Amino acid sequence: MIQYNVAMYVREISEVALIARLAKQIATATSSSTANGSASSKIIVTIGDDTAAWIGSGETELLTTDTVVQGVHFTPETGTWQTVGWKGLTSNLSDIASMGGIPTYAVVSLGLPRDMLVLDVENLYMGLLEAANTYGITIVGGDIVASPVFFMAIAQTGITQQAPMLRSEARPGDQIAVTGLLGGSAAGLAILLGEMTAKEEDPQQLIETHQQPRPRIKEGQILVKAGVTCATDVSDGLLINLGTICASSGHAARVDTTLVPIHPEATKAFPKKALSMALNGGEDYELLFTASPDIMTMLQGRLEHGLHIIGMIMDSTPSQVYLFDGNGEPVELPNTGWDHFRR
Amino acid sequence: MIQYNVAMYVREISEVALIARLAKQIATATSSSTANGSASSKIIVTIGDDTAAWIGSGETELLTTDTVVQGVHFTPETGTWQTVGWKGLTSNLSDIASMGGIPTYAVVSLGLPRDMLVLDVENLYMGLLEAANTYGITIVGGDIVASPVFFMAIAQTGITQQAPMLRSEARPGDQIAVTGLLGGSAAGLAILLGEMTAKEEDPQQLIETHQQPRPRIKEGQILVKAGVTCATDVSDGLLINLGTICASSGHAARVDTTLVPIHPEATKAFPKKALSMALNGGEDYELLFTASPDIMTMLQGRLEHGLHIIGMIMDSTPSQVYLFDGNGEPVELPNTGWDHFRR
Lengths: 343, 343
What we know:
The structure is a homodimer of 343-residue chains. Chain A is 32% helix and 22% strand. Chain A is an alpha+beta fold and 343 residues long. Chain A folds into 2 domains: 50-160, CATH 3.30.1330.10; 167-324, PurM-like C-terminal domain (Phosphoribosyl-aminoimidazole Synthetase, Chain A, domain 2, Alpha-Beta Complex). Chain A has a 6-stranded mixed β-sheet, with helices on one face. Chain A has a 6-stranded mixed β-sheet with strand order 8-10-7-11-9-12. The radius of gyration of chain A is 20 Å and the shape is globular. The interface between A and B is large, with 95 and 95 residues.
């Protein structure tokens, strides 16, 4: 039986805690059931990683879903309809990338307000189709319903011949690395929101980093083929996503903040905030992974946007992330990653 | 280039017309692209049928998505959270059934208002899991986001060893049949909304028909193995869904309204409205299919909830549905099926 406080509202529980409760409810119900063709016995990954994974008839199948709501995830200030389409699809592709998979097909569910322009729906699809064509996937269906607020839920399939990279596979002694620069998306968002005045002359590069992320699909495949077994993507923020790896793996992480690859344009535009943007900003969609030093050495020079080692997995408790500066002194930073219900 | 009226709003275009525009946009963009591992060349069914279908590594893979929004598809009067969960998943399973497929895995995207009770989310999941266990599928993941209005978008996978049944495969001379009773869901909804006073003493059976539909998964597999090649499910209403078969196949349909299997409880409760409920009500989730008289004869007695022949496919234009009564006299009924944006 699931214990609950009958008076508890969604706003009073963290997203992580709510998902954990539902995952427990699902696990309890599923263990007592018999699935089609032993479907449940073929499952490799269920709730709690970037995608689900199961053994198909010839390869491992991946499935993920990611949703955006107008006013929650974007506003007219932070994205055009075209970039909302691009970003909505590429955030799903990033989940497939973080498992080491090849994305294949997508279905798109749209909730459309009656006073939305048809032209805007077509612009949204222009962005979706640009992303689909850029990354070789096909939109094969969807659903369109009326809704008082615009939302888009995409489900994306993928395949892989290798064992998917998981959040739970970090091992003490592993080095921690990211596939590219961090903080650019948060800096672009800050410029779009006018929350801070960028010192930079041309903010377009940061804005594009926020609006048109590039999922690291090729990199994911290089990693998995090189023997990397633990990865996720930097969607919620480096500290949040690394914290998830620690919690799933049951180990702690030590990060040297001077090694974090801050987007140089973010540093130029927001010199005081750039480190925090890189640690907490999220939506950078770089891959965050752990592997032995041998594998890291082998990977050097093989990733298009670099391989940036930022720390190490430690065999200590609690399973959390510890920050240090270049002199080995602890760094205290508030953890301000994204939580859908509390913020 | 797609032609548009820049001032046209979503409310001014039918759902069918909007989907047709987007499908054209997708087809144009996709034909010029190169998909992963020739993914696009493996597609059997894309936008415009109950599910998408493509050739997997060992069998045909199916993918569909279906979405509900509070206040649009249900209200506190028309369903409990548990039945919203059940119905949300089974409407997806019905799409898999109408292709003749075996449903396998689902991902659930939820948009949750901050003032929703956690208990209600758990009740929703209770309904989802009851349906999942009843029909042997596993919920393997999802996404939870904050939203000013509750919505749920489910993506459901399935497999089949046979060629999927399509809306476009009706042939002149085919008989038209449904797998069970119609109008019960609309009658149950009318009772729940208090729009009409049911004459019946116990409305529970009709209410359950509306709130807890039973997808015809077994029936779909029996049909496809018997050689049926054309099917859909009665989700929007018999006339709408048969109209879609006609439009997709390029033929017309003749229906004898005296042969339509009206739910007997609907007839008892709403004697004057029951035929209209059976023709236009929707959400009955019976399978609607066409096949040669030989195949129909072979299927007699093999379907748990009956095989009700209601008419015939004709080689005439325009591709629409013509209604006749038992004496062969034309019947005029307004087509009042569901359109998300206009009604």
